[in-house]
Amino acid sequence: AGPALLAWPDAPVSAMVNEEDHLRLQCLVSGLSVVDAWSLVDRLDVGLGSELPLAFHHDFGYLTSCPTNAGTGLRASALVHLPALVLTKEIGRVLEGMDRLGLTHRGVEGEGSRFTGNFFQLSNQTTLGRNEEDLIEHFGRTVDRVVEKERDARQVLLNAGPRMEDLIWRACGLLRHARLLGYRDFSELLSGVRLGVSLGVLKAPAIGSLNRMMVFAQASHLDEAAGRALSAEERRCHRAGYVRTVLRDAGEASTSGAAP
Asked: E strands within 12-102?
């Protein structure tokens, strides 16, 4: 049988069949809710494990196609926005420290992808020799430390005065008025707007709206909205139009007092 994707419309869980492994379970939740995500996946894992002959070794745990996933088979990840660490040039030191603590980092799209929009995907490297609860606790504690470093760096940026405000308002202005936007340019500009909202320089749009924009400005979503496969140039045009509409609506809602 070929590969398949199973998704539940009323739950944040999905399962990939016959991809790298015969079965891979996934749960996506907002915030650093690693324990909640693990709880949902664990329930699904127990149910499937009672029906399927999963490859399990008494000493090595789950046997997977890639040896780095063997053992618990657990890969916890968090997508974090770290613009202040990038702007203050502290990101390299922080990521090196994180590597020493057993976490790895990659781009938004996973292994081998580039870093865009100052978003970093942080994941545990070790799956063997520790139980799931220990892995999750260590992962959450380490990511919390990275987030705290980002908060400290943002306080430094708040003291930068007009230079910081110019970066934020310039990004906002370009997104509000651009007629063509590639996804990489869009991501970098959106990072500036997101930072502005987080620092209180901008009152809108809300972070939730920015999250949705980051998803729906991607190529396949634009094609779906247009009802056809767009050319690269058309996609840049549609993306810019979509972004202008979202920012315009957010600005109107903010002015009327309907949004923060």
From this structure: 13-17, 23-27, 56-57, 61-62, 77-81
